[in-house]
Amino acid sequence: MTASIQPTSYWLIWSLLVGLCPVVISNSQLLKSPNTGEKELTKEAYLATLDPEIKKAYEHVEFDSPEQIDKAFADILALQNKKSWNETYTRIKSKIVTKTKKKINESVTLNIYSQKSSKSRPGLYWIHPGGFFFGDTDYEDFMMQRIAEELDFVVVSVNYRLWPAKYPEIFEDCYAGLRYVWDNAEKLSINKSQLAIGGASAGGGLAACCALRARDEKNDKEDKNPIEINFQWLIQPMLDDRTNLPSTVKLGLSPGWPSEANRLAWKHYLGGNYSKEHHPYAVAFRAEDLKGLPKTFIGVGSAEIFRDENIIFAQRLLDANVVVELNVYPGVTHGVDNYRIDNPFDKVAEEVREVNLNALKRAFRQ
């Protein structure tokens, strides 16, 4: 990675650039109240919650203060248009999967991954992570190729506008890509009855919002060709702008994605304010009605700030009669499952990937 970034911010930076346990919680109580008097864990207490492999990587790292996180965001924005950091990601090309790019409008380009076959098969529409600020589809090449090769999916990954774009521009880009996939499913060799939508971190939140809009447009019956999503694949999704649940307080300085970074990202995305009248598909967690959504997989780390909002969202989906699989990765923080060459927790990362891939594999089994 080529950049003048302080060592104390390094772990935050690489985690941001990727962008991805049984816990008993009173869901209704948490939905109605901000943090319930929880205190932020000390570094020592936080490290004790981690998988040993992850703990070993983090125990000699200084965790970032809110002030350092502010500076880290400035450093990230300086990197936003530089591609040198892509070189730190594994570059393995599949021998049986082809990758093509399709520009569908001035702001949206799709990466399409598929095996050379005309047979109709499952499709995955994927939205990359990055906190609405950074990232692109290319550094996830290997994962997209892996899904296309091992699961024989047609994978379509969207490059959407980033900061300084906000809601609704970012969301509209993602939905435009989904609409293209649906309208061109036959040409892409995608079986419309086996279309999944997925995303990691901010991409997971955007995917959940796309699913909400697709459901609403189908219910309105005005769309002559309504999009029908059959499965949501949400990897450590960023769902709630309020950042006020117990895990966001106790785990607030977790180096994968700290609470302060989350607040800044949401502030920029929403323009500082939220109202459901003006932002109906901006924040998935604020949706009041989750009925009629497709069956869903949610994966989240027990040691990341998104833990509680993901668990509560899964419970709300269950209450709405949606079929849900929730996996809380024990001792895992945010964004461990990337394919960096220097990933210091590669064993845990592969275990997390296998859990996620198996859920996607099961989604459309006959």
UniProtKB/TrEMBL annotation:
- Which segments constitute the Alpha/beta hydrolase fold-3 domain? 125-336
Give the domain of life.
Answer: Eukaryota
The record's annotation in PANTHER family points to: AB HYDROLASE SUPERFAMILY PROTEIN C4A8.06C, ALPHA_BETA HYDROLASE FOLD-3 DOMAIN-CONTAINING PROTEIN-RELATED
Q: Does the keyword Hydrolase apply?
A: yes
Q: Which Gene3D superfamilies match?
A: alpha/beta hydrolase
In Swiss-Prot or TrEMBL terms, this protein is called Alpha/beta hydrolase fold-3 domain-containing protein
Q: Which UniProt keywords apply?
A: Hydrolase, Signal
Question: Which Pfam family, just one, is annotated for this protein?
Answer: Abhydrolase_3
Classification via SUPFAM superfamilies: alpha/beta-Hydrolases
- Which stretch is the leader sequence? 1-26
One MF term in the entry's GO annotations: hydrolase activity
